[in-house]
Predict the 3D structure of the following.
Amino acid sequence: MSIAVRWMKLLESSREGLGKPAAYGVYRYFADKAKSSTTSKQAIQGNSNEEKIRVRRARPSDLARIIRFVKEHARVAWPGITPPLPSQNILFEDYVARSLAQGHSMLAEQQEAKRWGKVRGLALNTAVCPWDAFLLEKWAQCIKCARTKKLMLLTAHCLRAPGIHDKYKVHTVLQVILMIAPNSTKPDEIAQMLAKHSLQRGADVGIPVLRFDVTSDTLSRILQSLNLHKEWEYHYEVEANTIKEVSGGKESSMLEDKRSARQSLSRDHRYLAVYTAFPLHEKPH
């Protein structure tokens, strides 16, 4: 009889526990092992009239805000590439979401009304393998939107052309694309913080080589101040149906009027430079 009473009590306690939520839960979104780090959050200190910024690793809940930020600043990250049409946004969003899902991207937030909210900068970090450029090209052939197709083809070309995987004999390279809000009061500090946190992220997960893809002289100067090495540079001009390489930032034609001269001057800024860093050890010889 005592045994039956004990079983009844156990059944009642298990039924009561089924309807009660757990006191706490641990949720993991990324495959890598969590590590406590004192540099996971950092703020630019200033007086009450200056904006305060912190940099942290992007979370899945940040997806909508980050996609909106990338759409608004796509011309900064990929000069000459027009953002996709609203009807084709799903392709562009999928490309960004795939990078964010890896868990390496860094987000710079501005403090607003005692909370962190507005996105002021982003390091879109993606671990890329030697065959990723080939997959992007195959993906681009299936895309009807000309704007998204040119973006995929440009990304695939810039992934393959430097030959970083073969040069340093590595399987995985962390690609870092820096995007800074142009109306920020501290763009240099934000870019430097994002770059340093990306370097730390590469060291934490054991990625031997990082490549920073930048498209402005300001970002190039900041990376050079961090002693990063310029690996490759690509000057290009976006045409109706293709992307044409420009030798040395200037086209071969020497006959141009004032209007084309102004266009040529603006084309000089349409370039992509790749800087490399080696967070695990010194640069190999």
Notes: The beta strands are 53-57, 106-112, 115-128, 173-180, 209-214, 229-238, 243-245, 271-277. The chain has one domain: 57-277.
